[in-house]
């Protein structure tokens, strides 16, 4: 038994060790991922629930690691935030997304914004406003064609956040609150911030399949958003049932596998040319 216990200790410590080795490997890899061209943006269409037209696209990062294969953003974005690497990576994401959007415009595809996720750490970086301004200037993208998705957690530092949001709004950038409903926040403070859109988190859209009490929560969020004059987007729509419920309750925009998975830019271009021509 003692031996077994001994083995267990060895087993656990080597597992823990294994995790930290992987983390260190990932961190080192992440530092070089940009220059090694391993990062790529995919784009997921956002669809008007009234017309079925594509009215936006969200950029989502992908990391193709030479040894570990595909690493999902939920694994390396937190690491990038922890290490501060999110600042240079975030700037790269902004540049790539704006360049891509500009390229689509040069192909005659226009009339919708490109949505880019912004981490709290990146948003709170003192150079963030400067980065956004630089990227818009360098790519020549109109500020009104860039949308930034920011989570509710920025309101933990409300003074700084309001100032940054106001600066972005003054620049003409569109502002969306991502993962809405998952934070501790209420809609009430949002009306004092220059927000344009709220994105209802997938976890609430998942509930549409279930009991009516859950459904009414989605309806409540939509109604509050509409009352405050926000554009309301629902993410993670997978079924027709969810789509119908959201349409019936006047949600403006939808995003999810029901319409399309996130795709490489080239494939989104085909969808855009086909659907919005
Ligand atoms: P998010 O911003 O809430 O993005 C939505 C996630 O749901 C994406 O996962 C998307 O691929 C996935 N999704 C969309 N529709 C459906 C659906 O119908 N069903 C299911 N099951 N999933 C759906 P992804 O791309 O793995 O990204 C996960 C998270 O990683 C994002 O959540 C975001 O928080 C973060 N992330 C992704 N790209 C970036 C980025 O460029 N910058 C930053 N800062 N974070 C990013
Ligand atoms: Ca998002
Ligand atoms: Ca989400
Ligand atoms: Ca998010």
Automatic annotation (TrEMBL):
Q: Where is the EAL domain positioned along the sequence?
A: 23-276
> The organism sits in which domain of life?
Bacteria
Its name, as the record gives it, is Histidine kinase
Annotated organism of origin: Neobacillus kokaensis
Please specify the portion of the entire protein covered by the chain, as first and last position out of its full length: 345 to 621 of 626
């Amino acid at each position: 038994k003692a031996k077994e216990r001994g083995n267990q200790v060895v087993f656990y410590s080597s597992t823990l060790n294994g995790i930290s080795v992987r983390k260190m490997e990932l961190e080192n890899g992440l530092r070089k991922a940009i220059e090694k061209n391993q990062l790529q943006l995919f784009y997921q269409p956002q669809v008007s629930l009234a017309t079925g037209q594509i009215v936006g696209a969200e950029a989502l990062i992908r990391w193709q690691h030479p040894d570990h294969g595909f690493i999902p953003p939920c694994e390396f974005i937190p690491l990038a935030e922890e290490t501060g690497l999110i600042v240079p990576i975030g700037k790269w994401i902004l540049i790539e997304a704006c360049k891509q959007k500009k390229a689509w415009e040069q192909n005659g595809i226009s009339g919708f914004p490109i949505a880019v996720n912004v981490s709290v750490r990146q948003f709170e970086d003192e150079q963030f406003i400067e980065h956004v301004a630089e990227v818009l200037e360098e790519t020549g993208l109109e500020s009104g064609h860039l949308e930034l998705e920011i989570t509710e957690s920025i309101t933990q530092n409300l003074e700084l956040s309001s100032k940054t949001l106001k600066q972005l709004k003054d620049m003409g950038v569109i502002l969306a609150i991502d993962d809405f409903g998952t934070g501790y926040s209420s809609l009430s403070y949002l009306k004092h911030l220059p927000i344009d859109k709220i994105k209802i988190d997938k976890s609430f859209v998942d509930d549409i399949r279930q009991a009516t009490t859950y459904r009414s929560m989605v309806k409540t969020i939509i109604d509050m958003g509409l009352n405050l004059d926000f554009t309301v987007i629902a993410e993670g729509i997978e079924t027709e049932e969810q789509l119908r419920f959201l349409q019936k309750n006047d949600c403006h925009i939808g995003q999810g596998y029901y319409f399309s998975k996130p795709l490489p830019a080239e494939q989104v271009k085909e969808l855009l040319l086909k659907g919005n021509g």
